[in-house]
Amino acid sequence: MTNYSYLINYLNERKVKLVAVSKTQPASAILEIYNAGQHIFGENRVQEIIEKHPLLPDDIEWHLIGHLQTNKVKSVIRIVKLIQSVDSFKLLREINKEAKKINRVVDVLLQIHIAHEETKFGFNYGEAKEILMDGDLRNMKHIFIRGFMGIATFTDDADQVRKEFRELNNFYRLSAQYKGSNFNPDILSMGMSGDYEIAVDEGSTMVRIGSLIFGKRENKAGGTN
Ligand SMILES: *Cc1c(COP(=O)(O)O)cnc(C)c1O
Q1: pLDDT profile of the chain (225 residues), mean per 10
Q2: Measured between alpha carbons, how far is 190 from 148 in angstroms, rounded to an integer?
Q3: pLDDT tens-digit profile of 20-54?
Q4: Are 172 and 148 in contact (CB under 8 A)?
Q5: How far is the CA of 42 from the centre of ligand 1 (A)?
Q6: Is the CB of 203 under 6 A from ligand 1?
Q7: How far is the CA of 67 from the centre of ligand 1 (A)?
Q8: 19 forms bridges with which residues in the sheet?
């Protein structure tokens, strides 16, 4: 909790939004942070959001930050406020299709693969640019792309991490030229417990922080799935 107070002051001063990453945490732990004033929570598994959200206050804003399979879009679309982890055009189509059925426009971020690690999901810059330029995107009236999410390399090399965040911020800023009816970038989601200060320094508008708030997760495999 002391970490939370410090963190929220630091971020508020810099006008950066906090997503408290509550994966693997029980509803009771989430409620404690909620009561301290936090209303945005991030989960990386559909199943966990489905299980926890009925146990918690209605005004929580849930973000999905982990890989989403197309066959699970339907079950989570009514619950989530922002899907940060769109990593294929097929997924974008599916979200649009399901959002249309419930007559909503769903906010999403494109996940960009910025790390020097094979295992992480996401588009490279070229692929993301193609999507933003794709004529089909304009016909998807039930999605709105708010920006990008990236996970830096898990390393002690701060220069490497800084470089990755800087490139993503450059892309974010340059992408404004593709603005259209369903793309207008105002969210750059980058920074986690170990690298949020660098991310904020490099222009992040939204950080996703778990272990610094809730303590270390038992299952360190928590990564992206
Ligand atoms: C787990 C996770 C985080 C938070 O990680 P911490 O190191 O606990 O802050 C952020 N983003 C994504 C996509 C995650 O899966």
Answers
A1: 89 98 97 97 97 97 97 97 97 98 98 86 95 92 98 96 98 97 97 98 98 81 44
A2: 8
A3: 999 999 999 999 999 999 999 999 999 999 999 99
A4: yes
A5: 9
A6: no
A7: 12
A8: 208
- Residue 23 alpha carbon, nearest atom of ligand 1: 1
DSSP letter at 156 equals S
By the 10 Å C-beta count (0-12 exposed, 13-18 middle, 19+ buried), 116 is classed as middle
Task: Decide whether any atom of ligand 1 lies within 6 Å of the 224 Cβ.
Answer: yes
Q: What share of the chain is helix, strand, coil (3-state, %, to 5)?
A: 45, 20, 35
Name the residue with the closest Cα to ligand 1, atom 15: 224
Closest CA to 62 of 70, 71, 51, 72: 51
The strand pair at 80-86 and 61-64 is best described as: parallel
* Residue positions counted in the chain: 225
**Number of helices (H) and strands (E), helices first, in the chain?**
10, 8
Q: What is the pTM assigned to this prediction?
A: 0.95
